[in-house]
C-alpha cells in the first residue's frame, strides 16, 4: 500500500526534484550573445511558415474553406468581432472565471497539499480518496457542476478551480513529502525547533515543486474553462467556439481556439516570469539572472 | 600534550549501533569507548562503511545508540542541538538562502535578533574568506566555497564542539589541501573541540592531536594514535612518513583482515 501511495503521487507529478515545465525552453546559451532580431526571426520561422502554407493551400483549393477556413478569413472574422466588442466581452468573462478559479484552487490545494505531505496520518487518511478522485477528468464533472451551480459563472469557476487544484495538490504533496532530509538535519543541528521546521525548511524547499504545480494547474484549468463555457455558460471563449459552430462560422471557431491559445500562452508566461522572480535560487532555472 | 586528567568534553561509553533492515539486523558499530578532551582535535580514521559516521551522528544526536551513551560535558546527548555544530560532507546549505542568510540562520532561529545575527555572519564570512559573496546563492559557489559557508554557518552559532563528517571528502585534492590549511589556521585561533571523520590518512596526520583508527564493519576502535609533531606539519617530513606508513597499515589491515603482529603505535586496543 505504501508503495502504491508513492507511485501514484509520483505518477501524477512529472516534477521530480527539478520542476519540469513540460515543453523545455530552448537553451539560450546555444544562441550565444547574439540575441535580438536574429533570434526572434528563428522563433518566428515556424508559426509564420505554417500560416503561409495554410493560406497557400487554401488559395490553391486544396483545403475546403468550410472545413478549414484560411488565415485571411479567420483574420477578417477576428476583426469583425473585435471591432463590435463581442470578442472583448467573451475574453473578459473567461479571464474573470480563470483568475477566480485559479485563486480559489491555490488557496485550497496548497494548504491541503502541505497538510497531506507533512502528516503521515493525513496521507493515509486521504490516500484512497485522492486516488479515486484524481483520475476523474475535468470534463466528467460538468454535469454535476451544472446541477450544483446552474448555468453561468459559478459552474465555470468551479471547473476551473477543480482543474487547477489537482496538479497543485499532487505537486505540493510531493514537494513537501520529499524534502531532502539533510536540510532538516542541518536545521535541527543549528537549533531549529520542531515547529519551525515546516515554515523555515519544508515550505521553502518544496516551493519549486509547488510552483510547478501552480503552472501545470493553470494549464490544466483551460480545459475546464472551455468545456464549462461550451455547455454551462452563455459567454466566454468556450461559448464563442461552440456558438460559432452552431452558426456555421468555422472562421470564428478558429478565432476562438486561437484566443484560448493566446490566453494560455500569456498566462503561462506570466507564471514562468513569476517563478523566475521568486525562485532565483533554484538550480533548475536559468543562470542568466 | 593533552592533559589526560582533564574531564572529557565528549565521552562515548559503550556506544553501539545496530540497524534493522528487512528483518535483518546489521551491526554498524560495536561497543565503542572514546573520550575527547576540551580543545582537542580528534580525527576518526577508517575505511568506508566502518561506522565512523555512525559514531559521529550519535554524538550529533541525529541517531540514537542501540546501547551505551554519549555525553557532552557529562550531560547525556538526547537529540540534535546547536551546542554541537555539524559540518556535512554534502554541505547541506539551504539553497533558497544567500550565503549571508545561511550563516545568519543559526543565530536568527535561536532568537538572537537580526542585528546580532548579521554581526556574527559578517565576522565568520570574513574569517573563511568569502567577503564579497554574501549575496550569492549556494548554487553559484564552487564546492570549496560551499564548504567554507558550511563552516562559517556552524561557527556563527558559537558551538561548544564542532563535528565534521568528511567535510572535504567531495572536494578535489588541491581545494582539499587549501581548506585543510585554512581550517587548521582558524582552529589554532580558537581551539574548539573538534571531532573530525575522515578516510584520508594524510588529512588525519595534518590536522589531528589524536587519530582514532576504526575497523571495517562491524565498526570498532582498533587503535588510538597521538600525533605529537608541532603544527603546521610537513607531510613530507620523515616522522610524518613513518606515521603515515603505520596508520596506512593499520587501516589496510582492517580492510584486508588483520594479520599478525600488533602495531608499534597501538596504545589502546578495544
TrEMBL record, chain A:
<dbReference type="GO" id="GO:0042918">
    <property type="term" value="P:alkanesulfonate transmembrane transport"/>
</dbReference>
<dbReference type="GO" id="GO:0005886">
    <property type="term" value="C:plasma membrane"/>
</dbReference>
<keyword id="KW-0472">Membrane</keyword>
<dbReference type="Pfam" id="PF00528">
    <property type="entry name" value="BPD_transp_1"/>
</dbReference>
<keyword id="KW-1133">Transmembrane helix</keyword>
<keyword id="KW-1003">Cell membrane</keyword>
<feature type="transmembrane region" description="Helical">
    <location>
        <begin position="95"/>
        <end position="118"/>
    </location>
</feature>
<feature type="compositionally biased region" description="Low complexity">
    <location>
        <begin position="11"/>
        <end position="26"/>
    </location>
</feature>
<protein>
    <recommendedName>
        <fullName>ABC transmembrane type-1 domain-containing protein</fullName>
    </recommendedName>
</protein>
<feature type="region of interest" description="Disordered">
    <location>
        <begin position="7"/>
        <end position="29"/>
    </location>
</feature>
<feature type="domain" description="ABC transmembrane type-1">
    <location>
        <begin position="91"/>
        <end position="271"/>
    </location>
</feature>
<comment type="function">
    <text>Probably part of an ABC transporter complex. Probably responsible for the translocation of the substrate across the membrane.</text>
</comment>
<keyword id="KW-0812">Transmembrane</keyword>
<feature type="transmembrane region" description="Helical">
    <location>
        <begin position="157"/>
        <end position="176"/>
    </location>
</feature>
<dbReference type="InterPro" id="IPR000515">
    <property type="entry name" value="MetI-like"/>
</dbReference>
<feature type="transmembrane region" description="Helical">
    <location>
        <begin position="37"/>
        <end position="57"/>
    </location>
</feature>
<comment type="similarity">
    <text>Belongs to the binding-protein-dependent transport system permease family.</text>
</comment>
<dbReference type="InterPro" id="IPR035906">
    <property type="entry name" value="MetI-like_sf"/>
</dbReference>
<keyword id="KW-0813">Transport</keyword>
<feature type="transmembrane region" description="Helical">
    <location>
        <begin position="254"/>
        <end position="274"/>
    </location>
</feature>
<feature type="transmembrane region" description="Helical">
    <location>
        <begin position="130"/>
        <end position="151"/>
    </location>
</feature>
From TrEMBL, chain B:
<feature type="domain" description="ABC transporter">
    <location>
        <begin position="10"/>
        <end position="241"/>
    </location>
</feature>
<dbReference type="Pfam" id="PF00005">
    <property type="entry name" value="ABC_tran"/>
</dbReference>
<dbReference type="InterPro" id="IPR003439">
    <property type="entry name" value="ABC_transporter-like_ATP-bd"/>
</dbReference>
<keyword id="KW-0547">Nucleotide-binding</keyword>
<keyword id="KW-0813">Transport</keyword>
<dbReference type="InterPro" id="IPR050166">
    <property type="entry name" value="ABC_transporter_ATP-bind"/>
</dbReference>
<protein>
    <submittedName>
        <fullName>Nitrate ABC transporter ATP-binding protein</fullName>
    </submittedName>
</protein>
<dbReference type="InterPro" id="IPR027417">
    <property type="entry name" value="P-loop_NTPase"/>
</dbReference>
<comment type="similarity">
    <text>Belongs to the ABC transporter superfamily.</text>
</comment>
<dbReference type="GO" id="GO:0005524">
    <property type="term" value="F:ATP binding"/>
</dbReference>
<dbReference type="InterPro" id="IPR017871">
    <property type="entry name" value="ABC_transporter-like_CS"/>
</dbReference>
<dbReference type="GO" id="GO:0016887">
    <property type="term" value="F:ATP hydrolysis activity"/>
</dbReference>
<keyword id="KW-0067">ATP-binding</keyword>
<dbReference type="InterPro" id="IPR003593">
    <property type="entry name" value="AAA+_ATPase"/>
</dbReference>
Amino acid at each position: 500500500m505504501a508503495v502504491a501511495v508513492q507511485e501514484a503521487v509520483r505518477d501524477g507529478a512529472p516534477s521530480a526534484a527539478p520542476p519540469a515545465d513540460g515543453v523545455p525552453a530552448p537553451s539560450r546559451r546555444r544562441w550565444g550573445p547574439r540575441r535580438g532580431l536574429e533570434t526572434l526571426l528563428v522563433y518566428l520561422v515556424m508559426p509564420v511558415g505554417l500560416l503561409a502554407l495554410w493560406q497557400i493551400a487554401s488559395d490553391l483549393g486544396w483545403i475546403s474553406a468550410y472545413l478549414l477556413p484560411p488565415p485571411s478569413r479567420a483574420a477578417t472574422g477576428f476583426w469583425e468581432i473585435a471591432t463590435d466588442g463581442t470578442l472583448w466581452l467573451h475574453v473578459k468573462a473567461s479571464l474573470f472565471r480563470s483568475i477566480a478559479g485559479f485563486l480559489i484552487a491555490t488557496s485550497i490545494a496548497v494548504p491541503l497539499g502541505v497538510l497531506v505531505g507533512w502528516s503521515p496520518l493525513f496521507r493515509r487518511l486521504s490516500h484512497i480518496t485522492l486516488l479515486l478522485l484524481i483520475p476523474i477528468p475535468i470534463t466528467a464533472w460538468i454535469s454535476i457542476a451544472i446541477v450544483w451551480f446552474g448555468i453561468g459563472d459559478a459552474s465555470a469557476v468551479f471547473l476551473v478551480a477543480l482543474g487547477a487544484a489537482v496538479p497543485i495538490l499532487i505537486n505540493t504533496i510531493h514537494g513537501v513529502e520529499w524534502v531532502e532530509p539533510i536540510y532538516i538535519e542541518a536545521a535541527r543541528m543549528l537549533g531549529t525547533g520542531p515547529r519551525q521546521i515546516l515554515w523555515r525548511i519544508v515550505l521553502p524547499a518544496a516551493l519549486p515543486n509547488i510552483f510547478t504545480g501552480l503552472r501545470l494547474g493553470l494549464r490544466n484549468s483551460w480545459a475546464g474553462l472551455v468545456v464549462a463555457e461550451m455547455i454551462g455558460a452563455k459567454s466566454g471563449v468556450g461559448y464563442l467556439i461552440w456558438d460559432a459552430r452552431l452558426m456555421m462560422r468555422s472562421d470564428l471557431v478558429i478565432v476562438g481556439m486561437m484566443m484560448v491559445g493566446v490566453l494560455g500562452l500569456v498566462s503561462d508566461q506570466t507564471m514562468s516570469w513569476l517563478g523566475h522572480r521568486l525562485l532565483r535560487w533554484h538550480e533548475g532555472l536559468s543562470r542568466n539572472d | 600534550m593533552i592533559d589526560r586528567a582533564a574531564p572529557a568534553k565528549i565521552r562515548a561509553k559503550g556506544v553501539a549501533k545496530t540497524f534493522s533492515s528487512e528483518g535483518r539486523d546489521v551491526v554498524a558499530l560495536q561497543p565503542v569507548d572514546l573520550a575527547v578532551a576540551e580543545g582537542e582535535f580528534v580525527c576518526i580514521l577508517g575505511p568506508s562503511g566502518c561506522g565512523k559516521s555512525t559514531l559521529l551522528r550519535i554524538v550529533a544526536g541525529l541517531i540514537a545508540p542501540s546501547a551505551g551513551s554519549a555525553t557532552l560535558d557529562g550531560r547525556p546527548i538526547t537529540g540534535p542541538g546547536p551546542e554541537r555544530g555539524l559540518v556535512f560532507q554534502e554541505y547541506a546549505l539551504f539553497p533558497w538562502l544567500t550565503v549571508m542568510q545561511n550563516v545568519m540562520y543559526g543565530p536568527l532561529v535561536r532568537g538572537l535578533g537580526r542585528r546580532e545575527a548579521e554581526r556574527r555572519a559578517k565576522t565568520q564570512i570574513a574569517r573563511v574568506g568569502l567577503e564579497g559573496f554574501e549575496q550569492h546563492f549556494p548554487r553559484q559557489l564552487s564546492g570549496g566555497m560551499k564548504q567554507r559557508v558550511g563552516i562559517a554557518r556552524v561557527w556563527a552559532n558559537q558551538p561548544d564542539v564542532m563535528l565534521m563528517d568528511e567535510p572535504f571528502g567531495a572536494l578535489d585534492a588541491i581545494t582539499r589541501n587549501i581548506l585543510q590549511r585554512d581550517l587548521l589556521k582558524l582552529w589554532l585561533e580558537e581551539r574548539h573541540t573538534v571531532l573530525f571523520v575522515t578516510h584520508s590518512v594524510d588529512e588525519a596526520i595534518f590536522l589531528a592531536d589524536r587519530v582514532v583508527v576504526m575497523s571495517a564493519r562491524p565498526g570498532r576502535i582498533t587503535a588510538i594514535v597521538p600525533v605529537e609533531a608541532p603544527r603546521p606539519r610537513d607531510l613530507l617530513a620523515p616522522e610524518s612518513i613513518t606515521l603515515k606508513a603505520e596508520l596506512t597499515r593499520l587501516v589496510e589491515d582492517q580492510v584486508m583482515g588483520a594479520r599478525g603482529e600488533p602495531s608499534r603505535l597501538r596504545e589502546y586496543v578495544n
